[in-house]
C-alpha cells in the first residue's frame, strides 16, 4: 500500500464482513484508513504509527487465556493510540483496561461513535479529501513514471477513465490510451469516450476498430461462457497488437513504453486477500482481461481507493458526470445481452432498445433508484404481434432493472407503470424486429443479474 502523509486508521480484519465497511466509513469522514490482515504483529502495528486502531470481527481470539497470551499485546497498543474493538454484541467483554480503549458492538458503532473516536479520542485532522488524494496520487505517478511512457486500456468505465484522467494530469503526453471498439458497445459509447472524455481532457487516445474481427470470431457461438472466453481472448490479442504498434513507433526514441496502467481499486486488492503477497492476483483482470505475461511495470494509482472515492476523484479531475456516475457494465458488453448467436443486426436491435431504455429512465429521474438495468434481446425467441393491421413475428426485449450494492445480491426495481408503458411503446414503435417488451421480476438469487 502506498505510504502517505495522512494520519491513518488501521482496521484489523478478523474475518468480519464489516472490516471493509468500517474502513470506508472512516474514509467517508475524510480520514485515511486501511484494512490489514489479522496475521499482522503487535510490533508491525506499532511500527505503522496509526492514529487509531480498530479490530473488527470475531474478537474472542484477542483475549488472553491461561495457556495463550492472546494474539496482540493490546495494552501496549492502547498505550500508544485509541484502540477500538468492534464485534458482535456477545463478544464485547472487558478484561484489559489500560490505556484508551473502547469496545463497541458493531450495531452501535455508528457515524457519531466513529467520529468521537476519530476526532475526540484520537484528535485526528480530517485531511483525506478528493483534492488531497488527487494531489498525492499525481505526485506519486510523476515519481514512478519519470520521463517514460505509459499505455492504458480504456474501457469507458469509471475506473479506467479516472486513471486516464489522473495519469494525464500527472504526465500528460507520456500517456497513450487504447480503446478497443469490439462492436459490442452501447449506442453512443464510443463517441462518449472519444469526444466527451478524451478530446475534452486532452488525452492521447488510439481507438482500435475491431468490430469485424470480434464478430467473425463470435459467429455461430451461442453458449455464454464460450462467448465470454472468445471476447476476453480477442481483447487481449487486439490490445497486444496495438501495444506492439505503439512500441514500434516509440522505438529508438529517447523514451519507451515502460509502464502499463490499470484501474485496480481497493476492493479488488482486499478481495484478493490483503497483505499476503497478493498484490497482482486480480489486477490483470481489470480491463476486460489483459495479458498475464505483461512485460511492463504496472501503474495502479487507484489501488488504495474505494469506488466512491474514485468517483469523487474523477469529478475533481474533470471527468464528465456521464462517465463518473456510470452504471456497472459487463466487460463482454452487449455480447452477453443477446441471448443466442451474435451478428451486427441483432446487436443493432439491442443497441436501439437499450438506448431508449436509458433515455427514458434518465428523463423520468429513475437513475438514482436503479443500480443497473440490463436490456436483453431474446434473439432466438419469436412471438406473433400486429402492427398497422399487419401480422408481425418479432423478438422480445427484456428489461432487468435492479437495485444492489455490490452485485452479489439484488432485487428488481418497481418502476412506475407509466414509465414502463412509455418504454414499451417507444421500443415497439421505434425498433424494427421487436414486437414485445417484458419485465424481469426475479431477485438475485435465484436469477443472476445478467441473462448470460
Ligand atoms: P451476475 O450476472 O453474475 O452479474 O449476477 C453481477 C455483476 O457482474 C457483471 N458481470 C460481468 N462483468 N464481465 C464483467 O466485467 C463479465 O463477464 C460479467 N458478467 C456479469 C454484471 O453486469 C453485474 O454488474
Structure overview:
The chain is an alpha/beta fold and 452 residues long. The protein has three domains: 8-121, Rossmann fold; 130-324, HUPs (Rossmann fold), CATH 3.40.50; 337-439, GMP Synthetase, Chain A, domain 3 (2-Layer Sandwich), CATH 3.30.300. The chain has 14 helices and 17 strands. The chain has helices at 19-28, 42-47, 74-80, 111-121, 130-145, 158-171, 189-201, 211-218, 224-250, 266-271, 307-316, 321-324, 344-363, 417-430, and strands at 8-14, 32-37, 52-57, 83-87, 101-105, 149-153, 175-181, 205-209, 257-261, 297-299, 338-339, 375-378, 383-387, 390-399, 402-403, 411-412, 434-439. It has a five-stranded parallel β-sheet, sandwiched between helices. Strands 8-7-6-9-10 form a five-stranded parallel β-sheet, sandwiched between helices. Strands 11, 12, 13, 14 and 17 form a five-stranded mixed β-sheet that branches. Helix 1 links the parallel strand 1 and strand 2 (32-37). The two termini are 36 Å apart.
Bound molecules: xanthosine-5'-monophosphate
**Protein structure class:** alpha/beta
Q: End-to-end span in angstroms?
A: 36 Å
Give the C-alpha Rg.
25 Å
Write the layout of secondary structure elements.
Blueprint: E1 8-14, H1 19-28, E2 32-37, H2 42-47, E3 52-57, H3 74-80, E4 83-87, E5 101-105, H4 111-121, H5 130-145, E6 149-153, H6 158-171, E7 175-181, H7 189-201, E8 205-209, H8 211-218, H9 224-250, E9 257-261, H10 266-271, E10 297-299, H11 307-316, H12 321-324, E11 338-339, H13 344-363, E12 375-378, E13 383-387, E14 390-399, E15 402-403, E16 411-412, H14 417-430, E17 434-439
Helix pairs in contact: 5-6, 5-11, 6-11, 8-9, 13-14
The chain binds xanthosine-5'-monophosphate (XMP).
The site of xanthosine-5'-monophosphate (XMP) has 11 residues, from loops.
